[in-house]
Amino acid sequence: TWKWVVGPMFLYLCERLVRFWRSQQKVVITKVVIHPFKTIELQMMKKGFKMEVGQYIFVKCPAVSRLEWHPFTLTSAPEEDYFSIHVRIVGDWTEGLFNACGCDKQEFQEAWKLPKIAVDGPFGTASEDVFSYETVMLVGAGIGVTPFASVLKSVWYKYCHDATNLKLKKIYFYWLCRDTHAFEWFADLLQSLEAQMQERNNAEFLSYNIYLTGWDESQATHFAVHHEEEKDVITGLKQKTLYGRPNWENEFKTIAGQHPGSRIGVFLCGPEGLADTLNKQSISNSEADPRGVHFIFNKENF
User: Fold this and answer.
1) Residue 139 and residue 144: Cα distance in Å, rounded?
2) What residue ranges in 184-293 does DSSP mark as E strands?
3) Sequential DSSP letters for 52-105
4) Distance between CA atoms of 19 and 118, rounded to whole angstroms?
5) Which of 130, 153, 219, 262 is 20 to 30 Å apart from 53, CA to CA?
6) Dist CA 298 CA 295 (whole Å)
7) Domain spans of the chain?
8) Per CATH, the architecture of 128-299 is what?
9) DSSP H/E element including 282
10) Domain 24-123: what homologous superfamily?
11) Listing from the earlier edge strand, what are the strands of the sheet with 118-123?
């Protein structure tokens, strides 16, 4: 038995030593941004840190807990000179981090007063393959929208730097959430991308749809009254917010008709039930002919 156990145990111990060494490296918090609805953004720097789009890290704050590690998706792009995470205050540990960073105080917080942070990672996800396709569907549900902040930022940097060599030509982005207020920082990112792409006369590069799945009659009435305004009253975007859930069969058929003979990457960060739906649609809308349209499904579950 020991011959079968000693090999895996040795590899496990090596991995734990590497992760321990990596977590001991110095991390500097360069900026703390307070977003609406108790969401904070931590911008950090670490020597030798290299990331790809959509990856995640484990974070420990000894001032809050000396043992707890929590995973957070990176919301910065590899092209930026820092890496960042967005933390929504929803529990004891996040509340402690919020207070440790001085976000509960009105006065300006000096950088040397910020708490020490340990970072382990980054770790890979399916979203890294987004640049392998000419056409992609990005589907984020609730907090699952965070990996696509990194993706959309990186796409924009690559597009501005060298659009001719960028393989990715079209993005269909779907954001499903019960309440956009919790993710206003992401709506701000979409507003920035929307404005910049219009300046470059390439507004068709990114098509996005925002679906509010948790809505009541008063919200629907408010939506009907303001539907004719130039910008959406909820997000401030030109694309109007939709209510309910997408008809995925229609969405897949429409995209398949617009991109015949293409390999289309479908990327999801969301619950298992939605993953099953998108996987079935990807299979049923892919053609048997190798020269036809094919949907390649990739998922991250939470």
Assistant:
1) 8
2) 206-212, 242-243, 263-270
3) -TT-EEEEE-TTT-SS--EEEEB-S-TTSSSEEEEEE--SHHHHHHHHHTTTT-
4) 11
5) 262
6) 10
7) 24-123, 128-299
8) 3-Layer(aba) Sandwich (3.40)
9) helix 272-284
10) Translation factors (2.40.30.10)
11) 70-73, 56-60, 118-123
Integer Cα distance of 6 and 118 in angstroms? 30
Q: What is the pLDDT of residue 203?
A: 65
Residue with tokens 């382990």: 120
What is the Cα–Cα distance from 203 to 147, expressed in whole angstroms?
Answer: 22
Q: Please tell me the pTM assigned to this model.
A: 0.76
Structure-token pair, residue 169: 């030509």
Residues of the chain whose pLDDT is less than 70? 109, 162-164, 179-183, 202-203, 214-242, 301-302
Mean model confidence pLDDT for the chain: 80
Query: Max alpha carbon distance in the chain (Å)?
Result: 72
pLDDT tens readout for residues 251-273: 889 888 888 888 888 888 888 88
Element at 135 (helix H, strand E): strand 135-141
Q: In the 8-state DSSP scheme, what is residue 42?
A: E
Packing angle between helix 184-199 and helix 146-162, nearest 10 degrees? 20
Q: What is the reported pLDDT for 181?
A: 66
Q: Taking the CB of residue 183, how many other CB atoms lie within 10 A of it?
A: 26
HEC profile of 98-125: HHHCCCCCCCCCCHHHCCCCEEEEEECC
Q: Are 144 and 177 in contact (CB under 8 A)?
A: no
Cβ proximity of 277 and 141 under 8 Å:
no
